[in-house]
């Protein structure tokens, strides 16, 4: 479903390449974030249908989607954003804090190697990849507070060769940066980057940093954040976000973006949304 807005001619989509993992073994068998409740039933078929619609939406928008084979015993492997950070063809892999997810890192590392990515480094610090890293086209915004170690920010700067800005998360519901912030449009030679974020997920100092760096940001509220509205994916014009994020969608449309609303309710039971399922590969 799309929300019509007054499209700004400057909102130009760019073709993206994504890596995704089908939720063939999706389940909520343990608790590693506040959204997970193993006592609540999970419909694996519905999760697959929602994931498939997300994948097919990207393809309809003109993007390339590659898939990695899921592995039994790794129900969160569907959340591919946590598997690596790729900028200019350089790959920084992941190292998970939760032991339940630690084996995922090696499966994704093998995928990158098998697909010709030779400039690949596995981190020595806890680093949950695009869960806590957001590339603006000029800066790597890096979250910490619950999952990724602060020292991983410096490691990312050395490996990827890009400037890193550290941001502190303080609300345990928004344990990854990608649950509270996403990049709407990357910086170009003629325009700064634009982001959307939920201020209350961050420390006071981090809020001041974000306001200074992105004075024109779209600000989300509690309703937007609690439905994972900030766990969105933008190609510079089209913004894929959860069905319930109606008020955020209206604000985006008013800025010239075209919201695309999808149902991710089953995936949200494990603390995931569109971005969690989507790793961007920047060559």
Task: Write up this protein.
The protein is an alpha/beta fold. It has a single domain, classed as L-arginine/glycine Amidinotransferase, Chain A. It is 23% helix and 20% strand. It contains seven helices and 15 strands. It has a three-stranded mixed β-sheet, covered by helices on one side. A hairpin with a 3-residue loop joins strand 12 and strand 13. It starts with 16 loop residues before the first strand and ends with a strand. 45% of the residues are buried. About 2% of the residues have low confidence.
Number of strands: 15
Strand content: 15-25%
Instruction: Identify the CATH architecture.
Output: 5-stranded Propeller
Shape: globular
Indicate the percent of residues in helices: 10-25%
Output the CATH class name: Alpha Beta
* Spatial sequence of strands, sheet with the most strands: 2-1-15
Count up the domains: 1
CATH topology label = L-arginine/glycine Amidinotransferase, Chain A
Poorly predicted sequence stretches spanning 5 or more consecutive residues? 4-8
The description of the largest β-sheet is: 3 strands, mixed
N/C terminus separation: 30 Å
Mean pLDDT figure: 96
Radius of gyration: 17 Å
The computed structural class is: alpha/beta
CATH homologous superfamily annotation: L-arginine/glycine Amidinotransferase, Chain A
List its traits.
283 residues; three-stranded mixed beta sheet; L-arginine/glycine Amidinotransferase, Chain A; single chain; alpha/beta
Q: What is this structure, in a nutshell?
A:
With 283 residues, this protein is an alpha/beta fold. Helices cover 23% and strands 20% of the residues. It has a single domain, classed as 5-stranded Propeller (L-arginine/glycine Amidinotransferase, Chain A), CATH 3.75.10.10.
């Amino acid at each position: 479903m799309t929300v019509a807005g007054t499209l700004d001619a400057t909102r130009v989509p760019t073709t993206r390449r994504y890596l995704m993992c089908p939720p063939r073994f999706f389940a909520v068998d343990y608790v590693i974030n506040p959204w997970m409740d193993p006592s609540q039933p999970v419909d694996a078929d519905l999760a697959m249908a929602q994931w498939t619609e997300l994948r097919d939406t990207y393809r309809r928008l003109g993007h390339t989607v590659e898939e990695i084979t899921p592995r039994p015993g790794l129900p969160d492997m569907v959340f591919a954003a946590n598997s690596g950070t790729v900028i200019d063809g350089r790959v920084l892999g992941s190292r998970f804090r939760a032991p339940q997810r630690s084996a995922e890192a090696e499966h994704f590392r093998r995928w990158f190697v098998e697909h010709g990515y030779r400039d690949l480094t596995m981190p020595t610090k806890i680093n949950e990849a695009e869960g806590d890293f957001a590339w603006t086209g000029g800066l790597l915004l890096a979250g910490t507070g619950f999952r990724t170690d602060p020292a991983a920010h410096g490691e990312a700067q050395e490996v990827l060769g890009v400037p890193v800005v550290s941001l502190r998360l303080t609300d345990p519901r928004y344990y990854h940066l990608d649950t509270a912030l996403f990049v709407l449009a990357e910086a170009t030679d003629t325009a700064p980057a634009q982001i959307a974020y939920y201020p209350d997920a961050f420390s006071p100092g981090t809020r001041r940093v974000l306001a200074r760096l992105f004075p024109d940001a779209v600000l989300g509220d509690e309703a937007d954040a609690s439905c994972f509205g900030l766990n969105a994916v933008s190609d510079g014009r089209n913004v894929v976000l959860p069905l319930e994020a109606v008020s955020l969608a209206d604000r985006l449309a008013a800025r010239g973006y075209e919201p695309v609303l999808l149902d991710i309710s089953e995936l949200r039971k494990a603390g995931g949304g569109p971005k969690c399922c989507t790793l961007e590969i920047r060559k």
